[in-house]
Amino acid sequence: MTDVLVLGSGIAGCSAALAAADDGANVLLATKAERPEESTTHWAQGGVAVARDDPEAFAADIADAGDGRCDPHAVDVLVEEADDAVEEVLVETLDVPFADDYGREAAHSEARIRHVGAETGKHLLAPFLAHLDDHPNVTILEDTAALELLTDEGRVRGALLDRSDGTQDAAVADTTVLATGGVGACFPRSTNPDTATGDGLAMAARAGADVADLAYVQFHPTVTVGENPLLVSEAVRGAGAVLRNADGERFMLDVHDDAELAPRDVVARAVADERERTGEVYLDTTPLDFRAEFPTLHERVVEAGFDPDSIPVAPAEHFLCGGVDVDDRGRTSLDRLYAVGEVARTGVHGANRLASTSLLEGLVWGRRAGRDAASRSSVAGEPEVPSRPERDPALPDGFVDGKLERLHRVMAAHVGLRRDRESLQRACAALRRLKGETDAYARTRPAREVAELRNAATVGLLLARAAREAEPAGCHALEGVPCR
Fold first, then answer.
1. Considering the entire predicted model, what is its pTM?
2. Residues 16, 338: contact at Cβ < 8 Å?
């Protein structure tokens, strides 16, 4: 039994755990990750946006990027708390070595990004986890997956955990915080780690929590082509890099007034269009000293076998703007269940996320949710623990890989960067069948990989259904409907 159970160890989960623990709560943090590299936060390149001395401009940029779908109150919360949260947690507590200058990225009207080169997440997450390791009120369980939420008379009372040694047991808690990250594993090309199977979103939906804005899946425009996609940070374009097609033309000048620094959804669609029209798109880094300004990223590009002066790129799934619907303290529609970070829909991002606001949102909402969760009174009684099969019958050869490949084919063909309603209807039918098959296997097998496959299939169906019904905006584009 613990006061607060946090599921996930990215910046949102760490922030919630720290806030709750500092307020005196006993916190159990369970994470699938065995090392920081398995968290999306670790791979965050650009940095953390702050308001600086012009919060109104920051709020306006968020709203413009979100294509009119942002929640104004949520935007105000993010902007008003941005600078203090970054200073108190990242600078004063963790001593993150931010550069003296501020970076600029797409759809920002000014330079306001606190960064550490193009590897901010790496320098943020490791010290955060180390700090929590030393906190007397925090216990961390690595290589531990949540399989189902535990409920009791309409309340969420923890989760059923699959531990590193293969045992499964109930972690009962007064409050539970989902911080499980994104859904990139549902797509064949993603900037997310393979562990991003949408677990928190799927578990919350099965438990009856409200979800919202699931149609808005953001694709990052500059991700290297081929296997093992490497994200090339928007900060590189902010420093002067430009996009050129196979004919050497700088095409973004004719697409948007802000050219390469247009909102991500605009740039991603333009890159996809030019690849289809001319065959290739390259990021031309010769206008800047790429090696000097982004040494680690330059090295990774070279190690991946690409010419650092002319990097072939294509869009890849990057971020889910929607998720489990929450209020300004991360509270979901289910009593004592919170959601923070990418798994949550705060309303900040609307239909398209502004660059370098994901770490900030996780930090701000994590702190708010952690404090609120720590203030809740204890609950008597024991929740009902879902029964799990005691044995694990062998799966058919290639079962999980085969089903995941099928999910990827459907998502790529019908729920990608551009969609149409007829195609989405076909996707829903195919994903409904796939979900039924994975549900059946999950009921008879306790294996974690089957639970993750079930979650990914569940999330794929949720995304397709939402896209089928949603009006086009931002990163949800329908064929034949003009985009902004």
1. 0.96
2. yes
